[in-house]
Amino acid sequence: MQANGQRLSAVARRRFLRDGFSTASAGSTPEATSPALPTGIGLNGEAFPQQSSRGETNSPSENGVEIANQFSTLVEASAVAFSPSREVEELTRGTVRIRLSRGQKCVLLGTCTLWVKQGSVSVYGAVLSASTAIYRIYAPTTHALPAIEATTTNAEVEIEPLSDGTTELPYTRTRDIWTRVGVKQASDLFYVLGHSFEYDLKRPGRLRELDIAPWKALLTNASTYDSSLPPRILICGRRSSGLSTFARCVVNRLLARQSANSDPASRAGIRVVDLDTSTPEFVPPGMISLVQVNKSVFGPPFTHLLPPSGSDAGYVLRTHFLGEIGATDLSPWHLDRMYDLFELDRNCRSKQHQAPLLVLLPRWLNEVDEVDAIKLWSKMAPTQVFCLDPNPASSHLMRWQSLSEGGKCNINQVPVQAFEKIPAVQQHDLQMQSYFHLNASPMSQPFWDQEPILAGMRRHATLSYGGNNARICAIFVMGGHVAFEDTYEALLGSFVALVAVPSSLSTDHGLGADRTRDNLSIEQVQRTDEDLPRWQGRPGPEDSFPFPAEGSFCLGLALVQDIDVASREIRLITGPELHAPDVQSQGYRVAVFIPKATADGRFRTDWVEREMQMRKGGNHTD
């Protein structure tokens, strides 16, 4: 810890801290106030109060606030290094100006916008220079907190609260992810916590800084290329290794490089092929996707899901729904959908050759057979591979090591870092909830509404399933052993994926118009007592996805709210911009896929029910 460029001893730090709060308690001018900081304990064990943005102080015992605080060293760093030297100032209520010197950092918690006014700073892998651009920062406690680090002699940034509904999602488990239990909630939506801090292995509950120093050389390597030959980067590795965080850092570094280029033609954005269905980066779970990313992402996946149509941040080019699959489930139908995304990327390259491509590989592709691995490698055509697994014999490289030797492709093994502290089920539910609450605004900026999805004026769609001209041509139950007569019970109240298939692939009886091409027969779709068209194909993984990838695509996810047997209609609560009722006029019909149930409860509707319980009772119970 330093004051006026000098490092202070432990005794001097305590005296300096005590004198600083003595001065504050005697009264402070608006000019010297700093943003609200959590209540905490100094290194000497003495408690110091929370200082509000108005210079007021709150006793640690007020409002049930605990004295013990995970941010004790952070608070001390902020109070000593920031306040006396006025490196952090409140300009207006909620707006904070921060001045940093080269190498100096500050750590954020909460939601805010960032404006770089002077110099340049590094945050989440991106180097941002002074401009008029505004960046959205999402820093929940479930993930490592981003640090703003000055990369020039002097840097100045302004931070404002970001109120886009993210912090108000009506899901009980989001209650404390934007603050800390036992710390009084700040009046603003973010905290300036202080300089960087060391992770304490003996205190695993303490939050971590997003320290990407071990990756700096690799990120520089990934973003250094000839603009006439953009890179095609493949990222793989084990779970809980920092893979998603590294991928976001690569995206941010590539986009920052483009924004710094004076040639507008080189600002083509980034295309991402994400083959991880468990925790995809830009779409809801269960999908593989090709997306166009135009703006940096500073937060976990549930804060930057992309809409299916154009926006400033980016958009989804195509998705296919695979559900939750493993290595043993892998079949030609899954691979065909992956190949389809790469084929679409190839078509995009002919129009936007400058755009780099990022490919995110899931663990279940490690056991793909040699023939399919060769074909997939030729489709990906990577120029660099980054594997988050330091083991030279890593299973994540087994299929790609020999293939890379035959071409101009470098393999880099990336140091593993564990940043996330969120269970897979909670991450899954947060992404699902974010998807169903996401809205698009006229300013092409996303925002999230607070209304439970089972209440109020939600997005609805009604699809017919009976008769020759019904919009729904087939219902598929993925995995499990749901009896034919139990189709109604399996469908009602479930999350489903709606897949558009060409009308030429269906008949008045459901399917089977093109038997030669698809090896389908009319008998493969049978009607239940409720007249629901249940797919009854031959058992085995080859029948999990009977439609060819070419010409079919996922429209989005929905929740089945009601099945009106009398009128042969299914009423759905849909995700953002899902236009299922319009597909028939465009030559498509809809196939409904009920996702495979997972052992840990993913794709269940528990969080939907908790939303309603919270609305009725107002209680936050997990």
From TrEMBL:
- Taking every annotated instance into account, which residue ranges of this chain make up the domain Clp1 P-loop? 237-437
Any one of the GO BP annotations: cleavage in ITS2 between 5.8S rRNA and LSU-rRNA of tricistronic rRNA transcript (SSU-rRNA, 5.8S rRNA, LSU-rRNA)
Enumerate the residue ranges of region (Disordered).
22-64
Record GO terms (molecular function): ATP binding; polynucleotide 5'-hydroxyl-kinase activity
Keywords linked to the UniProt accession: ATP-binding, Kinase, Nucleotide-binding, Transferase
Q: Its domain of life?
A: Eukaryota
**What's a Pfam family in this record?**
CLP1_P
- UniProt entry tagged with the keyword Transport: no
Q: Which family does it belong to?
A: Belongs to the Clp1 family. NOL9/GRC3 subfamily.
Name this polypeptide is given:
Polynucleotide 5'-hydroxyl-kinase GRC3
Which species does the entry assign this protein to? Cladophialophora chaetospira
